[in-house]
Amino acid sequence: MTEREALPSGGKAAYITEEVRRRIIEKEWRQGERIPDEAELAAEFGVARATVNKALQMLAEEGLLDRRRRAGTRVAVNPVRKASFSIPIVREQVEAAGMSYSHRLISQSRSPLPERHAARLGLPAGEVLIHQRAVHYGDRRPFQLEDRWINPRAVPGIETVDFHHMNANEWLVRNAPYLRAELNFSACSAGVRDARLLETKPEQALLILNRTTWNDSGPITTVRLAFHPGYVMTATT
Amino acid sequence: MTEREALPSGGKAAYITEEVRRRIIEKEWRQGERIPDEAELAAEFGVARATVNKALQMLAEEGLLDRRRRAGTRVAVNPVRKASFSIPIVREQVEAAGMSYSHRLISQSRSPLPERHAARLGLPAGEVLIHQRAVHYGDRRPFQLEDRWINPRAVPGIETVDFHHMNANEWLVRNAPYLRAELNFSACSAGVRDARLLETKPEQALLILNRTTWNDSGPITTVRLAFHPGYVMTATT
DNA sequence: TAGTGGTCTAGACCACGGA
DNA sequence: CCGTGGTCTAGACCACTAG
User: Where is the HTH gntR-type domain (chains A, B) (predicted)?
Assistant: First the structure.
């Protein structure tokens, strides 16, 4: 490299990342083609190999490169790019939209786990969990409908929480960090009860997000979130 | 640290990541609390500071830690976790499910860009783009309905492609790497035409994914994907 | 201004797996 | 086997910002 053309805008690794990405996008390095190895790039850019390694690992995680020992680094043939989105606390989500947040606990009980949730959670059907239904509001209009099952054995202390004032989402985020989570997006037509709670009409199409979390002592909670019609969830990259 | 208890299962950085995560989850280090600085942890674990740095940066990206110069590293108060999912090529997605893939190009034309897409793309309404509608099938049953606008100025060479044999998704992935993408999930009721093409009934709730991609010469493509009823999109962590 | 994380380096050794 | 990426180290300097 003769000289850094653009403003670095970051460190050397960031510069190398951008430059390599540019070469891929501009087709200087073509799909499936092997690119110079770390030592060569280190020499070209005048940096240590560790710096090149960091840059290339970022691009590999991003899906633009395939790296294998001995085989070298190649431009990915079918770049399987990853998108990510953050999972915000409902209250913050509502307040970020400039609305005032409130929520209402519709029901809470200890109930045997229905079959349809048992497999997902990895618990036997019939095991007694805490079952909650709640609605989250923005400016008094329904924003999200929540149907949640909580495994009390994974969350000691939950029995004593009053969820009329603290919503379960927030309490769990702060008190039950998870190791693994799974999210499922789907769509379904609002049932009669869903429609009433969301103050919309039955058969309305709803975006559904199912989220289940685990830690090393087993499943923590599974929740079905039904969003108000028109809600759009955004992810980037 | 006296000794590594568990099987390392990775390098030292991976071990430190797991151990710190464990201390957070087990509440040895509480929310908002400051944890020892990198030098101290390096001494505790008997590793170089760079190794601790790498481990803590992973946890910070994951959202479990807040790190600031001079202020040190703290356990995040509201862990905003990120979930990610990969954006597969439709054909691979279908074949991964054990079905045989086929697709059908419904229409292709050069059309002025409607107002509703103009803002999203950052192009003036009325600019002439390529407009395509296609259906992707798994075992001859409709899997996904695609409504796509392509900016030919961002993708030289696209005019000569015959999309009856190559689907646009695949061609673009291989020939038009993007710098930035935006994804929007929503739900809507199937219109008459959607229902016919997806071989389902009108008013059926559909999961909709809008994806728009850009590179440094502007927007590349925006596409609305309507999935067959019952389809579930999964993301993890 | 001093303490903390951010980054880089030159070198080393190791693990994987293609040739 | 042996070239490649994966990881670690000891040290250095820098950038930010809290006190």
Answer: 10-78
Task: Find and give the residue nearest to C14, measured CA to C1'.
Answer: B11
- d(CA B86, CA B74) in angstroms, rounded, equals 30
Contact flag, residue B140 CB and nucleic strand D, below 7 A: no
Q: List every span in chain B annotated with CATH 3.40.1410.10.
A: 90-227
B151 CB less than 7 Å from any atom of strand D? no
User: Which of B99-103, B177-181, B184-188 shows the lowest mean pLDDT across its residues?
Assistant: B177-181
Task: Report the distance from CA of residue A38 to the C1' of nucleotide C10 in Å, as an integer.
Answer: 15
With tokens 């509001």, the residue in question is: A137
Number of H helices, E strands in chain A: 7, 11
Mean pLDDT, chain A, whole residue set: 92
> What is the CATH class of A90-227?
alpha beta
Q: Give the pLDDT score at B231.
A: 94
Residues of A in contact with B21 (CB under 8 A): 179
What's the token pair of residue A220? 């923590």
Q: B81 vs A181: CB contact, 8 Å cut-off?
A: yes
Distance CA B64, CA B57 (A): 10
Cβ-contact B128, B110 below 8 angstroms? yes
Fold of B12-75: Arc Repressor Mutant, subunit A (1.10.10)
In chain A, which segments carry CATH 1.10.10.10? 12-75
Per the CB < 8 A criterion, the answer to whether A153 and A214 are in contact is: no
